[in-house]
Amino acid sequence: TGSLRAANQRRVMALLQSEAASAQVSQAEIARTTGLAPATVSNIVRDLVGAGLVETTVGSGRRGTVVRISR
């Protein structure tokens, strides 16, 4: 539902804002911390990138995709 999706997006953004000191969090870390499924986090990150709220960088090796708030 739309309200659940919006709530999950807020959870991801809140995590990214709280992790601002470290500047970057992997999608896997977001999933572990929020309890959301990795596929859900991937979809949310894609939506947030499309809205210009976050940026992603593909990590090397097992690091995975790194997410940070857009500047």
General description of the model:
By secondary structure, the protein is of the alpha+beta class. The protein has 3 helices and 3 strands; from the N terminus they run αβααββ. The protein starts with a helix and ends with a strand. The mean pLDDT is 88.
Count the beta strands: 3
Structural class comes to: alpha+beta
Nearest-integer average pLDDT: 88
CA-based shape: globular
Strand content: 15-25%
- Written as H for each helix and E for each strand, in order along the chain, the element string is HEHHEE
Q: List the total number of helices.
A: 3
Could you tell me how far the N terminus lies from the C terminus, measured between alpha carbons in angstroms? Answer: 30 Å
Question: What's the quick description here?
Answer:
With 71 residues, the chain is an alpha+beta fold. Helix content is 54%, strand content 17%.
Structural key phrases:
71 residues; alpha+beta; 3 helices; globular
Secondary structure elements and pairings:
Blueprint: H1 2-18, E1 25-26, H2 27-34, H3 38-50, E2 54-58, E3 65-69
Antiparallel strand pairs: 1-3, 2-3
Helix pairs in contact: 1-3, 2-3
